[in-house]
Amino acid sequence: MSASYLSAMHLLIADPDPTIRLRLKRAAGERGGAFTFAEAAAWTDLHPLCAAQTPDIAIVAEALPGFAPGEIATLRRQFSALSILVVGGEEPERLRSVLKEGASGYLWRGDAVDMLAQALETVRNGGIYIPPLLGLRAGRERLMTSAGPVPAGFFREDAAEHLTPRQRVVLAMIRDRWSNNDIADALGISIGTVKIHITAVFKALGVRNRTQAMVAAERMELPDPGDRPVS
């Protein structure tokens, strides 16, 4: 366990349900550590609490009264040192949206209590927490990729600095769901070279597969790859 996780943290827990707030407070301390807490039951409570108490991490439920698209970005602009974990439903569009606004992670509401300690450790160590991508298809099937079920994980916020211009283009193509053949045709390179670029991108991001890379890409300014080749 990292020393940074064990150091004192001030957490702001924002959820309309006091029982959920209590459960999240208990979950935060399950790996040890010295925590202090502030609580909010509505979005309008967040700004004065952040100004008065300067929390390290805010755990914010999308069910919070007053929560709306764009609010995470506004909060981050006003309190740039604040890391924000959003708790919401299992819609990949919402996950991508809040990460793009500047959130440091996203927790499925049903898993939030169980996964909070891991998410806090990830964020405290400079990462972005990505939950297990479960239940995203009709029938609550497990989302699969060629690498199998997507595990919980994170990517580094400074990852883009470690990508070459070509790798940034490849990542943009992955984000837009281009196949390896599409990438090879557009860039005039072999499939083998495409795989080398993708492996390097995954390593730089700290992700394991395309789905995690797609989520990571939503937080980055990437070039427009243009139109996908017509096969």
TrEMBL record:
<protein>
    <submittedName>
        <fullName>Two-component transcriptional regulator, putative</fullName>
    </submittedName>
</protein>
<dbReference type="InterPro" id="IPR000792">
    <property type="entry name" value="Tscrpt_reg_LuxR_C"/>
</dbReference>
<feature type="domain" description="HTH luxR-type">
    <location>
        <begin position="156"/>
        <end position="221"/>
    </location>
</feature>
<dbReference type="InterPro" id="IPR051015">
    <property type="entry name" value="EvgA-like"/>
</dbReference>
<dbReference type="GO" id="GO:0006355">
    <property type="term" value="P:regulation of DNA-templated transcription"/>
</dbReference>
<dbReference type="InterPro" id="IPR011006">
    <property type="entry name" value="CheY-like_superfamily"/>
</dbReference>
<dbReference type="GO" id="GO:0003677">
    <property type="term" value="F:DNA binding"/>
</dbReference>
<dbReference type="Pfam" id="PF00196">
    <property type="entry name" value="GerE"/>
</dbReference>
<dbReference type="InterPro" id="IPR016032">
    <property type="entry name" value="Sig_transdc_resp-reg_C-effctor"/>
</dbReference>
